[in-house]
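Please produce the structure of this protein holding phosphoenolpyruvate.
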Amino acid sequence: MRTPLVAGNWKMNGSRETIKELINGVVEGAKVLNGIDIAVCPSAIHIADVTEVTAGSNVAVGSQHACIELKGAFTGETSIDMIKEFGCQYAIVGHSERRTIYGETDEMVAKKFAVVKKTGMIPIFCIGETLEEREANITEKVCAHQIDVVFALEGDNAFEGAVIAYEPVWAIGTGKTASPEQAQAVHAFIRQHIAERNADIAEKVQILYGGSMNPMNAKELMDQKDIDGGLIGGASLKHEDFLVICQAAQVSI
Ligand code: PEP
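Below is the modeled complex.
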């Protein structure tokens, strides 16, 4: 039995004041939740404020991004060691916004994945197809390739201690959600693809769905056999909505 994970991706939103209100609301509401993993991923500059509030709670913190290099002359970047020092346990890698807007390739994402694992943190590895790729019936091929680049770098046990987020690009921030059946089919494929390298890791790895998950559709999605929680963008910006999604994860156990 896998523990569900609900992770909020706050993206580039909020001020110090609104972020403090948001995290206080999440931590307060999460006190009555158990049996699930909960995480929030604020912007890097808000991480210290957030970890101050989450200390001692059941809410973990993650970064949305980390530099591919460990240290040195990389103006504007934040290293994974810096992120870890501020109390983060997770780091999102390969989010489609990083891939499309900032040109992160599969190879760069795989290298970041390796850097995050090396520090003992948990990568939330995002994969997924664009609308054109879905319409061309190559969703599985695209996801398999994104995964295989990580296997090529890290070997057959690459996904031990990692989280995968299946995020169809056409569903992110668009209000269009994959149907539970569509999402389950891809999640099952991802698990099977990992099982071809290591069946034990495939059985244990948490595979989250991301793409316009909200309080209305969360339960139906998380009731699917291979959907182990969600990576939530827009709906994680209101603590009430985020907590409803966490409750849906709790009842899906
Ligand atoms: C995301 O950006 O990871 C995401 C899933 O966003 P949204 O929930 O807003 O679609």
